[in-house]
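[STRUCTURE TOKENS]
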Amino acid sequence: MAGLPAVASRRRRVSLPLGAVRMLSRKWPERPHWEFDALVLGDDQHGAWVGAPSGTRIRRPGASFVTDRPQVSLVPRHEPFIATFYAPGGVAPFDVYVDITTVPVWLDGPNRAVTAVDLDLDVVRGWTGRVWVDDEDEFAARRVHYPADLVRLAATSCEAVRIAVEGGRPPYDGSAGAWLAALETTVRQA
């Protein structure tokens, strides 16, 4: 899968302006889903990295929670997923949670945001290293409402991400640790 090269991730700060960004997840075709504010940390060969420190409020219609550990998310440039990596020690039973989505889109301007449509499937890696695909039942129930090309996109992306996570390929090889450290430094300096 493009965007998942078999080379070690090198952290670098480049063209993305640092600062706040609103992460907006939607359900097909355009229903609100999870939303939260994050900090743009930089980008590398995998895409842009954003971070949410401990205490970030994440909400969707009818639900809300506050994070108990820092997390960083990879927003790829051309791939249909958003991968989130969690710092150890929190209540989350996983260290990697990849939402299979449409290709994320950056909305620039004074209300900068990243938006993507969540396509139900998730690839998850637990703290023990076990990898599984979550919410296959939701995908099966909702896919009848998706265009055929969206169903293919979700299934193909899910399989490619699952293989990459199981194989520990970058960025699922611990590369996110540098971005978690960058988030901690950014929060300390604020």
Summary: The domain at 19-181 is CATH 2.40.380.10 (FomD barrel-like fold).
